[in-house]
Design brief:
The structure holds 2 protein chains of 2 kinds.
Chain A: H1 5-26, H2 32-37, H3 44-53, H4 58-71, H5 77-80, H6 84-100, H7 106-113, H8 116-147, H9 152-158, H10 164-215, H11 217-224, H12 248-266, H13 268-275, H14 280-301, H15 303-312, H16 326-332, H17 364-372, H18 377-413, H19 419-446, H20 448-462, H21 465-474, H22 480-500, E1 501-503, E2 519-521, H23 524-549, H24 580-597
Parallel strand pairs in A: 1-2
Helix pairs in contact in A: 1-10, 1-18, 3-10, 3-13, 3-14, 4-15, 6-12, 6-14, 6-24, 7-8, 8-10, 8-18, 8-19, 8-22, 10-11, 10-15, 10-18, 10-19, 12-21, 12-23, 13-18, 14-24, 15-17, 17-18, 18-19, 20-22, 21-22, 21-23, 22-23
Chain B: H1 5-26, H2 40-64, H3 68-80
The chains are: A mainly alpha, B mainly alpha.
Chain lengths: 599, 81
Amino acid sequence: MGLTSIDWIIMAVYFAFVLGIGFALKRYMKTSTDFFLAGRSIPAWVCGLAFISANLGAQEVIGMGASGAKYGIATSHFYWIGAIPAMVFVGIFMMPFYYGSRARSVPEYLRLRFDEKTRGLNAISFAIMTLFSSGISMYAMAKLIQVLHILDSPFRHLGIPQSWIFHTGIVVSALVVLSYIYLGGLTSAIYNEVLQFFLIVAGFAPLVWLGMKNVGGWSGLKARLDPSYMHSWIGMASPSTNRLGVEWFGLAMGLGFVLSFGYWCTDFLVVQRAMAADSMTSARRTPLIAAVPKMLLPFLVILPGLIAVALTSQMAAPLTAPQQGVAAQAAASGRNLIPAKLDPTTNQPVLDRLGKPQLDYDLAVPNLLLHYFPTGLLGLGLTALLASFMSGMAGNVTAFNTVWTHDIYEPYIRPNASDAHYLMIGRLATVFGVALSIVTAYLATHFNNIMDMLQLVFAFVNAPLFATFLLGMFWKRATGHGAFTGLLSGTAAAAIHHALTIPEGSLVGVKGGWLAVLHAYPSEMAQNFWTAIFAWVTCFVITILVSLTTKRPEESRLVGLVYSLTPRPAQDQLSWYQKPAFLGGAVLAATVLLNVIFR
Amino acid sequence: MRLDIRLAIGALFTLLAILLCVFGVLSNPSIYAQSLGFNVNLWWGMVLLVFGMSMLFLGVRAIFVCTPAQKAALKDEKSRQ
């Protein structure tokens, strides 16, 4: 690990720009709309890049590379099935209600459309979730700095103990994110997300280029890897013939419909980026513009994982013996791109049930950076990684301060205060949000199981959400009582389904089966997808049943909130190629084409 | 917004690109063994320089070139004089 002054200069320049943007925007933050919604003044392409960037945090850059190393090309399902259709849907059909209703947040839309309790439920669960996600992002970043030994030599130089590297990572990233959001609010977060998007491209494109060159291009990759790595659809008929361990129906419904629409269409973290757009047309175009780079991201984030596997062994782990093939044995020797996983407390390799070391796929991408990049470009690559961690965190913090101020503080703690007061509360919420994220990050270091359980609970809460929004926007008969009971029973259904099933070969507990084991899924992913499907269907059915037995909502109250009662947004001044429907169609056609090429 | 993001992106990337290019020229060629023999600092720096300069150009042009609405207003003013 040889970082030299040029690497440090590059990182310093980036950090100076990040903070500089915050300071430059400070004087424009006069009202709460400026702070929470960027004054609704951002052009569509900037919103669009921020829309995907907010999600391009730790889990994406590191995680998708890791999944690429583990599952191969099939990881692209998380993009082509698991994101693009939902992004097109939110742009064409849902944005008119989010933007047109002038709601300032997703929970606020729920109050306008349904009632106070539905909003409260959504706001509180969302606020808690964002804090934990931001804390986990911070934890992952500090951990990575420690594992890659980035700060080892400067710390030795300054005589500071090495154990402080983790704390420094957490505190410094927290302070940077805190200052630029405190100063510039959502605008600052969005601008930095756009900056980070270009940095990721600038840092990863040469990595993919060098890696592909080294393995001998696409045909070289094909020759070095087992065919199961190289297909996204072939083998999807049965869970046993593909690396994901999922069958096509569970994939299409669970990931492609429930989880993906639930995230991209209802998660305020991303929707907020479109709400900041300067016009209805821009807001509708935001997710459609975002879909274009999103479609191409697999080449940037998944390919490095594949390259790492290809370089690790001549013929990597065939399908029948995942994690036990040549790759695992090679990893045991400890000189590889994908090292064995180490237990954080004992520093010994973690062994699986067969006594073979488990692989730490999360290190595939960072190790590849160290492998190919000379000093100079290495600084740029590491800066891109750090930037992605920070903007993932910043996205959560801006979503948190808005939901806290507009949906928790304003209605329940202090209504009818002045705009300046809410602006001040938003800034304070930023400070507290970051402070609580730090607490979460330290919780993650001490209680790994607690984090697993929390993420499980979040999955239960999120799974049914899209059913509520779908009925709310397209069925005027849906009522507040229906939505509230639907959401609660959907969450309960997810928990019960999880309690009664288990992935094959797992121990009863966090992985499921804690009530009884009625069914075993071929993989954890299959179990997750089916949990989501059960939650969604339950929420959908219960919302309809309860709505039909409760009082019909007044139609006059629903204008602008429900599809059948809202005039279509005017788009006469747009030429045919500028219309959202055309853009959406083009994006979908390109996605289908990619799926066919990489089937 | 009065701060055009293109100016910030352009300035950052131009600066980073110049740093990479200069370092690429001055650095010892032996460090490029790990990047398959390519002087990636110089080459990638040049690509980023083109990107940074284009962003700067777009941002600066937006300051000096009027939007259609501003043009119409100017025309209106002239015809009145």
